[in-house]
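Quick one - first record:
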Amino acid sequence: MITSAVDPRLELARDRVGAVRVLPDPSLPSRLLQLADGRGLRYFAKQHGNRARYVQEVHAYRTWSPHLNGHVPELVGCHDSSRTLLVTALSGTGADAVAPGSPEEGLAHHEAGRVLRLLHQVTLIPRSGAVGPELAGRLAGWIQRADQAGLISVDERRLLAAHQDILAGTLMDSAACHLDYQPRNWNIGESFGVYDLEHMRRDARIRDFARLEFRRWQGAPRLRDAFYSGYGRRPTDTEQRLLESFGAVEAVTALVRGYEQEDLALTSHGRTVLARLS
């Protein structure tokens, strides 16, 4: 990977840890660099294009990550004007590299549940009335964008609006949530680790299960069982029904983003989830 000498990610790293070298990794998105210092310690330097995401991720590292001590990278430094941050790299490999159906895959989901519970337990506010209306408002915005782009039928709009009403009228537990909790952001090493805190904020607690429910568990219920075994409890019947409403959020956001980014796989995922809800 060719990187400019004035790359703010390199400048931040050199300022905080000294001389570094780039470790090429074609699997990483362009905004991420993997680096190593003179002692061989590895880091990730990340530059956000969106200021809100940058602020949210720095806040997450400073506010929420202490509750996951040892399971998330350490924030080494950040630079506000360039929206750049530097974190330590976790030892091990990404959970997405684990063979499907293997015992290691089940263990990863068990550990994912156990670690997520650490975060949820300490930040829990039971049956909050503030979360639902906010989520309903966000869903309404996505519905409008999908409708304007001609991505949903009248019946699908009616279905999504019904889930919007459910969200608006339901009391639900809130907690600090990762909100992109899935194997691509998990690390398996000496201990289970979690990357990518840019979406982390206080939200409905069970929403942290939605990506797994609708992207990973449909054809692999044993992984759902392993996760909830680690988490310590399964959703109640009421929470499971509410999770379907978060499936509505998953479906319409995938449709809109797939359309805007010309991502056929994301669009197909949105269609699959929407069909399940119908």
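second record:
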Amino acid sequence: MPIARAYAAQSARVPLTPFSMERREPRAHDVLIDILYCGVCHTDLHHARDEWGVGVFPLVPGHEIVGRVAKAGGAVTRFKVGDAVGVGCLVDSCRDCAPCRQGEEQFCIPGAVGTYGSRERDGAPTQGGYSTHITVDENYVVRIPESLPLDRAAPLLCAGITAYSPLRHYGVKAGDKVAVVGLGGLGHLTVKLAKTMGAEVTVLSTSPSKRDDALALGAAHFAVTSDTDTFTKLAERFDFVLDTVPAAHDYNAYLGLLKVDGTMILIGVPTHPTPLSAFPLVMRRRKLGGSLIGGIRETQEMLDFCAKHDVASDIELIPIQKINEAYERMLKGEVRYRFVIDTASLRAER
């Protein structure tokens, strides 16, 4: 079996350290991928520190994977050796339940198999993209369009589809007024995609220093949420509010920014529950919804859309040896706007 170099958390709340593991030889429908880049998602940190209580250790995070096919199983039809490909948050699902049959594997009723922190059908733990290579069924692999830079495409495999799917599902269209709460790795792609779809975008942030970035990314307006007057000035302004923030905050205040029949969509996941009042919803017939990444078919659609419209992530490329520092900087909001690991640094490590 191929031996992969990686970085792993050996237990919760300890630094990631070098790790070696076996990847399976490609089965009939598998491809073995040489990983070139892997994005660093806030979910990686949640899992590495077991903040959701579902940790499987040792844990190799990483579900924003871009690389090239190194070997293909005998029955593979979708890819060939050398193809630029990506792997997002899922590597398998039951394939038979209603969501799977509809191409929405993320909602697999028995439970989809996550790229890391999950278990294969045979019970083996899955390990992610902070590694030199990975073996994945071709049905859970997507093609990276030629026009997308591979390093800047990596965050699209999670942050990109997490932003794109609700914009499509909830029907955001040209002329809609859209507020994006938070301007981090997920928020900056939400701004870019909503703008590209023709929406008038306002960024709502606790950080006044992000104003210039927000406008450069395509936002028409910017407001600071630490100023309590913001919620009065912007009351009943928006058709949609997309909330990307993974920290606890008051949903009720943001619901008040919606017009009658407006929709607030949660795509950030705070660690602790947030109290919710019925009044902001019932008084204006507002809706509160959520969205979870996207299926494989929609992820490919998103990549093709991004290639067509020249949308990619703003990144800081790092060596794997700086991953623990990157986690701390991510918590402080000190990245513009997504860390991406260059796995050449992992191959070079001795």
